[in-house]
Amino acid sequence: METTNQIVDLGNLLAFDCTHQLSSIPSSREELVEMCLQKGTELVQAIANDLFNLPSTEDVDGPIVKLPPPITKLPREKHLPKPKPPTKWETFAKMKGIKKHKKDKVVWDEQTGTWKRRYGYDRVNDDQDIPIIEAKSTDEPGEDPFAKRQADKKNRVDKQERNRLQNLKQAAKVGSLPSHIQLAARALPITGTQTAPEKLSKDDLGNVAGMAAAATASGGKFDKKLQGEKKPKHEQKYRKFLPVAEGKGTGSKEKEQTDRVLNKLISKNSHEVLNIGKAVTMYNLKKEKKHQNQKGRSASSTSSKLKPKGNIQKKLTNKKGSSKSNNFKTKSKRSA
Amino acid sequence: MRTLDENETTQVFEKIFKFTGNNLKNIVESPSHEGPDPEPGRYCFRLNKNRVYYVGESLVRRATNVGRQNLVSLGTCIGKFTKGGSFHLTIQSLGILAANAKHKVWLKPTSEMSFLYGNHVLKGGLGRITDSINPGDGVVVFSMSDVPLGFGIATKSTQDCRKLDPNGIVVLHQADIGEYLRMEDDL
């Protein structure tokens, strides 16, 4: 059925014919299959024609063609991510004109005279490293300056945590949080607004809880469960297997695997068979040594190059023949 | 249904190798005429619920239409994986093993029934035995009329068998065709 209304979208390697109709109702399934295949081949031919008409560059593996951008608009699976509202610090920094600078991982420590980490185990301005704090005139006599420093740090950390939660709430109001945080944040009431917190549905909560429970090295199998908690959806770790029934063009990884295993097994168990490869290499090495000795004595090289090759073939057959005949002899003796 | 991964394939092949030796290659690479396809495919091994099946490729492709819970069996079952992860050959693999066996043992008619009830093969019941059997080799047990009866593991080499007293065990029983009646539910 030749219809002229074929649209070929090379960006997606797609061709479709919107005006196709079957001219006659097929009588059997095979006929229907045949007609569909025929139409399919025409469309594939159209794609191939257009592909080969594109300008191609030569490469090691063959001509390479750059496909044009796709024409058909496929719908998005998920919605576009909403822009996050700037955090309190970001708004402040923008107002003041403060720019971000990249920080080094190691910083020069004056006290010890070495390079230390900016944070973590062996860090620069650690509170524990300070041996002596000099008393200032503003200090009260009974106060412990080390405890004061610790308390100050704790306050700073708590304040930072509160600010972080506030930023998350702001983002949740707009709706631009990642989904798992959105879920956790939905339960929190937003102070100052009249919107009631949305009720979490059982499915959503179950999904997120399952994901969290299974995010361990053994897939959540050995964790202690709370009362009433159900097993995770996928109990074991995800394992990868070869495809059950391979397609026609995918090669044969299963065949490779079985062959590999088979060869390993056979070679492991064949002690008594003559390793022909090894024998050949040993013989060649021997010949080379002899050849070198001969070179040292005589100057002629071309004749000696030709001779060993002929000899190798003859001697190999002799070797094979002799070993074979030996085996036969011993076998016949045993059975008798 | 899924393919076997490399460890599982090695386990299966090692067990079969004990019985067939290098004929294992014939088993793995023989062309199969099982399905309606015009060209012969190859045989492959598939795992379903801890049982290993020896199936032709064309059948496997058609069997993917059956759901995992609904699929009972496909091709020939050759063995099972135990809960501990080791592989045991079952009696249903007898056809494949008997066709490619390296070591064979023929039983006298008097001791056939004893073997079919699950007892080991004694020296007194031995009719014929192939040469060059090593202890620990897999052996296929035949009756005098060349009907395969089952398989087992040889305890002694062929030479030592001649020196044994008539009540010594020659072949340790692993599977026999009487299991089709005795252990119908397990198979």
- Mean pLDDT over the residues of chain B: 88
Q: For the report, how would you describe the main beta sheet of chain A?
A: 2 strands, antiparallel
Shape, principal axes of CA atoms of chain B = elongated
Helix content of chain B: 25-40%
How does the major sheet of chain B shape up? 6 strands, antiparallel
Q: Report the helical percentage of chain A.
A: 40-55%
The total count of helices of chain A amounts to 8
Radius of gyration of chain A: 39 Å
Based on CA atoms alone, the radius of gyration of chain B comes out at 18 Å
- Uncertain spans of chain A: 310-336
Number of strands of chain B: 12
Reading the helices and strands of chain B in chain order gives EHHEEEHEEHEHEEEEHEH
Task: Explain the layout of strands and helices.
The complex is a heterodimer of chains A (336) and B (187).
Chain A (H helix, E strand, L loop, with lengths): L5 E4 L4 E4 L11 H25 L2 E3 L4 E3 L22 H9 L9 E4 L4 E4 L27 H30 L4 H8 L15 H12 L39 H17 L6 H22 L4 H34 L1
Chain B lengths: L1 E2 L2 H15 L3 H6 L1 E2 L8 E8 L2 E6 H7 L12 E6 L5 E3 L4 H6 L4 E4 L1 H8 L4 E2 L3 E4 L8 E6 L4 E7 L3 H6 L5 E8 L2 H4 L5
GO cellular component, one term (chain B): nucleolus
GO molecular function, one term (chain B): RNA binding
Keywords (chain B): Nucleus, Ribosome biogenesis, RNA-binding
